[in-house]
Amino acid sequence: MMKATRIVFLIMLPLLADILFGCCKCIDPIYHDYTHCSITADNLDNSQSEPIISDEGTIPKQAYGIRSSLYRNTGTCQINTQGLSTMAYGMSCDCPTEEQFIARDSILSISIFTLTDFDGIQAGDEVTEFFRVFRSTEFEPVKEYFMDIDFTTSWPITDVVYFDFLPVNPPATGGEYHFSIEIELSDGRTLSASPPAVELT
User: Fold this and answer.
1) Is 194 within the bounds of a domain?
2) Is the C-alpha dihedral spanning 42, 43, 46, 50 positive or negative?
3) What domain range includes position 61?
4) How far apart are alpha carbons 101 and 71 in whole angstroms?
5) How distant, in Å, are the alpha carbons of 68, 73, 76, 94 from that of 156?
6) Tens digits of per-residue pLDDT, 137-160?
7) Under 8 Å between Cβ of 135 and 148
8) Which run of H or of E encompasses 143?
């Protein structure tokens, strides 16, 4: 009886394996690439319940910020995955997302410069350390924020992504202020933009 049971088990083993692991046969993901193309910069007014782009030319200094819009262009490419296993490990059936989006040119650094003198800082000086960038529910130092970004995503790439930069402390005095933003990319390009000069009161 034991011998017969063992024989039946051995015969059924391939079928059982196919049933157990069939759900874990993953489809090779399709890879898309995208390119960072250009940026724009606008003055931001945070005096309301939601930040708004301001064209008024005057913003309360405690409410001032800069919004940078990074424009991206999506291209598609099929990456050859021949020879790579498409079977998930164990029984998790944790297959990769069918579509993956990969940046062809990642952001190496982002810098903010002042184009006017203020608080002992000279025009042309970098002032990145005086700004924070908003992430979900908190503000982070600019350079740390961009070091943490993963440029591979399973979500479709939007044409533009926004970053809001707010000064840690407003300028000590009111007056006309003007800033510029530069983004250095891994392919050697530098994208730059400046919002209009603004009067901070």
Assistant:
1) yes
2) negative
3) 26-200
4) 15
5) 20, 12, 12, 20
6) 788 888 888 776 666 555 556 678
7) no
8) helix 142-147
